[in-house]
Amino acid sequence: MIFFLVCRGYEFTVSDLQDDSEAPRIAILPYGKALHQSAVPRATYVFTDLDRLDVSELIAAARLFQRLKENGCRVLNDPARVRTRFSLLRSLYRHELNPLNVYSLEDGEVPERFPVFIRIAEEHTAGPLTDLIGDQQELDRAIDAVLAAGYPRRALIITEYAAAPARPGIFRKLSVFRVADRYLPHVCVHDSNWIVKRGKPGIAPMDLYDEELEILQTNPFAGAMKAVFENAEIDYGRVDFGLVDDRPCVYEINTNPTLSGPYPHSVPQRVESMKIGWQALLSALTAIDDEPGDPTSQVDVSGESVTALSQALKIHPSLSDGFLRLSKEHARRGDFRAAIQCAEEGTVQAPDDAKLVTLLGQLMVEQGRLPDAINLAKRAAELDPKDPEISVQSVKVLLAAKDGNEALAAAQRAMSARPKDGRLTARFARLMAANDHLEEAIEYAHRAVELGPDDPEFSSLTAGLLLEAGRGEEALKAVQRAISLQPKKAEYHLLLGQIQSVRGNVRAALAAAKRSIALSSKEDKPAATQRVRAFRVRLTKQQVRNVVQHLRRMLHIGGRVS
To answer: Which CATH fold topology does 364-556 show?
Structure first.
């Protein structure tokens, strides 16, 4: 088994591997989960997205890497050693492995040659923030412009321009993968712009496809790129480069490149190139999956996240996000005293961090310190009144602390700050209902419907709350509206059945319940059937109640029973 550690939102990069029956066993493990595990399977681990991790995550990832390595797992990309873009390009230039240099905007470095451009250092998709800049005066103006646009100085670098067309008007990006000790050629990307990203279809002439096929067959750049990867201390990734004066010019190494399998193409040479590249990649990955040992055994990694976060805070004591993570980790382990102490230290370092203040309030509720919890919840909502998550969590704390009036007031303030946010209003409706504030919940649900009349979830929420309040006729109209907006939602039909049963319409109730089974997915049908069977029992009891109520009414008005 090979585990790819990735940042959330970037799991798609290896999806083609998971869909290929010839690929080794692949699993995706987000860092948010990996760094908080007490044990992980004994397997191969590939650490990716290292340029997207913050300091605390990077330290935690590096400690996890070492623990896995010490326990005999094959691990690729040591987070403590991997060079990211600026460090890599500067090191390659100094070791005469690359012709272009880069400069730190934060350090005020002056380029040795022009043209240059400005870009975000750790960004793979955005590309340059400026056009090519020809001299220092133009660069000074460009720096002022990007800073005024809100790009932080410390995130930016100045890069020398180094590109040359492969043919007149056609630029080409070449790539080589590294998988452990194998260096694998990859298909080229062709574009009319020197900023070659995804390419321009149909621009490449046939002789460039012939060259590409020869590159895939002979792998001529393996030796040069081996030196680049070794300098970067990267064991897995894809290096992108061009040819300038027939010499490779490296632009970046991506530790989480998208792995795309072969796809239909009109040029036979490209089809063959894709097959060669893909098979080489599958072979290399299969080789690192061939690990001895019991695949069911686990590696103990407990305590690594707490140790790593504590270490990160020693390095950066003002790192409020580190206090937040460490406090949550202590709480997850049941050590609320340590969690509160950590959160309190964090609020001293960052008194205006609404997330930290909110977390501290939640911890106070857990420990029964309700007056402190109430004060912290109020403070968090004041610090960031427009953040919906802060608002919701603050109201949760106030409700848990049994301060209903302040919770209602806080919810009103939050909705006033985001008057068009139907989803926020609906969340407050659910919160109020769960805490015995049913009338307010119904009011909020109606408001959510007004804000989002085409959202069936808002109408369904309103119907359920009205049903709970015993307002069957209003509930019926609300659920019918939800069904009209989304007719094939099984849950809405089951809710309709419940409402009809309360109204005494048994036949309509059973019909709606059966409809919910018919609309359920194959996986959900057994559970849906069980719900409807239980529903039948409730309906039978309802019928009995209806008869009894009918008899009572007759007796009350003097009617006679024969």
So the answer is: 1.25.40
